[in-house]
Design goal:
This protein is mainly alpha-helical. The chain has one domain. The chain contains 6 helices and no strands.
Length: 202
Amino acid sequence: MSRHTLNRSWVRSLPRNLWYGYRRYVALSALLFVVGGVIGGIVVQFVELSAILSTAGFGGEGGGEFPEITTAFLVLNNTVALLVLVLSGATLGLLTAAILLFNGALVGAVVVVTAETGGLLVPVVGILPHGVLEIPALLFAASVAFRFSHHVVLAATGRREDVMTDEEAKEAAVLTVLAFVLVPIAAFIEANITTALLEGVR
């Protein structure tokens, strides 16, 4: 079988391989994100949203619900966050989990405050348009880190020969690239379309 045929076969089987290889890690990432959201919704009852946003690097004042930000700022901020997430696999998932919980808490806090002050439609419009891309990007990057961490543990305990095979490395690269591709699209939507939609519902 030629190398070209092997490459075509790998591409055709890629969606299935990604599904079976990463579904558990994506599910774990989503669970941690949701748990973080619940925590954020509780914490914001006792801590000002402005303080939470400042901690996240947005610096909103007076509980600024949606800080005025640009596409370039969002791309830079989210790209760095994804890069840290992917590299956090070296921490055996500890930093990965912390980042997911924190980001989930930030979203949860914003949702609760904006829903209380402007109704449920405001956080839905403010998060959903770009969130359908940004959140999956976050989960994909985290799942790459979690899978790597898991394989490190398995290799260290003798249950795997290699931390990652060549095929698994390619799959991780594809999912990582997909996450990074989603970032600028989500950033543009958030900085432009989301802002316009919010002006219409406030």
